[in-house]
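Hey everyone, long-time lurker, first post.

I ran two proteins through the pipeline my lab uses and got sequence/structure pairs for each. Pasting them in order. The first:
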Amino acid sequence: MGSEELADNIFRIAQTDAKLKRDNVDNEYTANSVHFEVGKEVRNSIERLGGTMPEDLPVPDKSLKELEKENKKIEL
């Protein structure tokens, strides 16, 4: 994950957490709705500002699982 994607995720998480607390959300259904709505707003903001959408960001050559498997082989 690059710095742009990391920053987007941290912003989304922080805003969701703040909204859950501000609105005193106490049930799973409402929490899921809040997560969805905040995520949608963050995506809209990225798009409006001309940023790179998450699905268009570069992906690593190897998955975390592949890297862990390789690392395990090296340790043996």
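...and the second, right after it:
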Amino acid sequence: MTVETKLALTEQDVRSFSKKMNEAAWMTDFRADAFAKLEQLPMPKPDKTRIDRWNFTEFPTHTVESSVYASLDELPKEAQALFTVAEETNVYVQHNNTPAFVSLSEDLKAKGVILTDIFTASREHAELVQKYYMTKGVKVDEHKLTALNAAYMNGGVFVYIPKNVVVEEPIQALFLHDNEEASLFNHVIVVAEANSSLTYIENYMSTVSEAKGQANIVAEVFTGDNAQVTYGAVDGLPTGFNTFVSRRGVTGRDSQLNWALGLMNDSNTIAENITHLVGDGSGCDMKTVVVGTGKQRENYTTKIISTGKNTNGMILKHAVVKDEATVIFNGIGQIVKGGTGSNAEQESRMLILSKRARADANPVLLIGEDEVTAGHAASVGRVDPLEMFYLMSRGISKTEAERLIIHGFLAPVVAELKVEGVKKLLTEVIERKVR
């Protein structure tokens, strides 16, 4: 059964926007096909969270045209702190819905590395983009929100690392939101071919107190045989959004995909992080931290599906919940028939700071093969009084003791963000949300 949805755009609006962005014809047709499927597709149904009354489709304007930057020095001060002078290269910045700055080192360009906005990529690298765009990771017809992203896509970045190329310094993407009416329908694609390596880190930063638009974000990551990718993110979207985020990974043989996600939105959020371990011997290390405050409603599904033999899937999720917020963790480790010798492990820990806060950890193992190892652990509780006593007995105030415990609790993911400016940002956002 489908529910009638009030759409903000028509098919002609979608086609007109595609033409305005000078997209390739295939992308225009792709959008129109996704739009045609919208009404027939159901909404997603995340476990233990009802979203049938959440508004994901109405917004004041589809695109906000914003200024571009000649250098990173023109960014707001809080955004400049993410970078150093040495990191002026290998950077992409999107200002609301406008590709605003891109810089890639000459050395990486010479090696065939691509860093560009998704619109340019659809024209200049059409064959590559078509190979990966919603074909192997996220699919258009999964549900209404994936189709919305395909039809309404108004931003995003394309990163491509050729075979045998090792990118020593991180590639960073900043999605800067400073207009309350701007909606984000972003699509990110990261491809690392065989024997390559990359650290990619993105930041969603907003300077407005409350948004009036929508946030619908899709990211797809592909690792070739023996490739190594670390994908880090700090999400900091404001209240007012109903946020949907889908991050997917697909791995090749003997490759490794590591996720380090700081999910710090102030908005109601439905998010999924799913990796398909397709290649034999591939692995995924999925680390996530969440802080829920105010009256937020947040639901996070993390899933690793082992299809190949001798794969290794590790999920670690920590959440701090306070005020009247509700945070749901759904963790799934799945080993399908044929995934002989694979390992699926997960751990979910949730720390409750307020009487009216709610937290729920739901670990699931789906095992279709005999010769495997698997396990899970979950806990939901309050700050350990013995830890508080130990710290306070050494002259530390109650407030400072609680602060130290929280930072120690979230440290496993914070430490994985390899850029000091980004790590500092995540630490500061955590400070703001828990004080």
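Reply from user beta_strand_b:
Welcome! Quick read of the second one: The CA atoms of residues 94 and 175 lie 5 Å apart. The chain is about 20% helix and 35% strand.
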